[in-house]
Specification:
The complex is a heterodimer.
Chain A (H helix, E strand, L loop, with lengths): L2 E5 L4 E5 H13 L4 E4 L2 H9 L9 E5 L3 E11 L4 H20 L2 E13 L16
Parallel strand pairs in A: 5-6
Antiparallel strand pairs in A: 1-2, 3-5, 4-5
Chain B lengths: L2 H25 L4 H11 L2 H23 L6 E6 L2 E6 H13 L4 E10 L3 E9 L5 H20 L3 E11 L14
Parallel strand pairs in B: 4-5
Antiparallel strand pairs in B: 1-2, 3-4
Helix pairs in contact in B: 1-3, 2-3, 4-5
Classes of the chains: A alpha+beta, B alpha+beta.
């Protein structure tokens, strides 16, 4: 697995690509208007098997000093897509740069679907006719 | 569907036709298929292995075709941090949702003729007692504004095709309650 390596006086610090992916995934799902990440069939099967995949729908390319991220997103109905996408890009870039020291050159967003909230039917009990 | 997909589907259909012919012959008393299968054990098991490998390959290939996803068509917007790809499926879902929320409109379907600039055609049914041109214009304006606001794209052309009048199911229940 490719990983980011950083050398200090005391030794090496290595960050796995998956960690960068998890950081990106968590930062993206925290943004308002994001319903979730789209992980495809493999991600769905992994979740069905009870494996929580925090980097679902995230592809990262990590170099020595730079990183590029691709995110597959499902947006919530009613939110402005450009605004949500911009917030995700900023949030992901900030999170990766702060936590790993990598410079994020690109955050590409793929909007793959829209989540429509289910309208809950109110089951009101009929008023009692006889008291 | 790729060329190889078409070839595999073609071979499968030919094999199925041949198999059905042999099954029909067997049903009418011709033992050619049964003899051939028995020969696998006695004369040449290589034939059997070849057939099994071909059938297994076709079966696996067809199964994988189910999982294969078609590349999604997207609209691309460039921002300072990268690109935003919006799938046409998402835009379609949004158009259907927004159009269906307009009073008097039912059964909306959307077709895209062109990605850039976006060219949309919508087939829909209207409820009775609505002015068709007025409602169609309202649909065009609503969708154009909605896509500009929510998706950030300008639609070049919105065609509306009113394919019918939605039949309302009238409550024909008769109150049979007596005295």
């Amino acid at each position: 697995m490719a990983e980011k390596e950083h050398r200090t006086e005391l030794g090496d610090i290595r960050i796995a690509n998956e960690v960068v992916g998890i950081i990106a995934g968590l930062a993206a799902t925290d943004v308002e208007g994001v319903a979730g990440m789209s992980g495809g069939i493999a991600g769905g099967i992994a979740e069905m098997l009870g494996r929580k995949n925090l980097s679902k729908g995230v592809k990262v390319e990590v170099g020595e000093h730079e990183a590029a991220v691709d995110l597959d997103i499902i947006v919530e109905y009613g939110f402005s897509i450009p605004e949500v996408a911009n917030n995700i890009q900023e949030s992901v870039k900030r999170a990766i740069e702060t936590m790993t020291g990598l410079s994020v050159v690109e955050v590409n967003i793929h909007i793959l679907g829209v989540h429509f909230p289910q309208v809950e039917e109110k089951h009101e009990e009929p008023p009692q006719r006889v008291k | 569907m790729t060329k190889l997909d078409k070839v595999i589907v073609g071979i499968t259909s030919i094999l199925l036709i041949v198999l059905s012919i042999f099954l029909a012959l067997t049903a009418f008393g011709n033992p050619v298929l049964l003899t051939w299968i028995q020969d696998f054990q006695t004369v040449s098991s290589v034939d059997g292995i070849v057939v099994i490998l071909i059938v297994a390959f076709i079966a696996i290939y067809l199964a994988l075709m189910i999982w294969k996803t078609e590349p999604q068509h997207t609209m691309i917007c460039h921002t300072e941090h990268g690109q935003v790809h919006i799938s046409l499926n998402s835009i379609k879902e949004l158009i259907i949702e927004v159009t269906s929320r307009i009073q008097g409109i039912k059964n909306v379907s959307v077709t895209f003729f062109n990605n850039e600039p976006l060219d949309v055609k919508r087939d829909l049914e209207l409820m009775p007692d609505h002015n068709i041109p007025a409602l169609s214009e309202s649909v065009q304006a609503t969708v154009k504004d909605y896509l500009a606001e929510t998706v950030g794209i300008t639609v070049a052309n919105i065609q509306v095709f009113v394919k019918g009048i939605h039949k309302q199911e009238k409550d024909r229940s008769i109150n049979k309650g007596g005295m």
